[in-house]
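chain below, 180 aa
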Amino acid sequence: MSSELEDKKILMVVAQENFRDEEYFEPRDILEDAGVSITVASNSIKEAHGMLGGRIKPDIAIKDAVMAEFDGLVIAGGSGSREYLWSNKDLQRLVKDAFDQDKVVAAICVSPVILARAKILEDRDCTVFKDKECIAEIEKYGGSYIDKDVVVDGNIVTGRDPKAAEKFGHAIVDLLAKEE
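prediction:
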């Protein structure tokens, strides 16, 4: 496969429990096919479990990750995101650091709420899982919700749900390629 982005490194974040499998595995495959190196972070380095049975051994705990070592940040969704990631201050710091360093920041399903809480969606177009609580969180922090599969605004990529996982992955690769 193509290795056009072989010098790029992405930090992918999953909830310790109940991450959405497709929202992690599909974008990861697309990124790796483009030559991107992936490091996985979660709440701890204990095995993380997907909603559909997928398992991942994280490389690093979120609290130990340093955004300067990566070209972008990708956060998978799933019901565990609400419980384990939405209020994670270390993850919000990583999101803010990535944004401030003009790196790609991407989140799918319920996880764009993390971007909102990190205060990087103000006056930005984005999408999120079509659920009242998620949309309310986006709007509370100044984001402009758009009901589309994938929305790209500057260096921010948001995806709506598992059906958008493939498009989401390709949008991240396209954005990384533009930075070359």
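The first helix runs from residue 21 to 33. The CA atoms of residues 5 and 180 lie 8 Å apart.
thats it, cya
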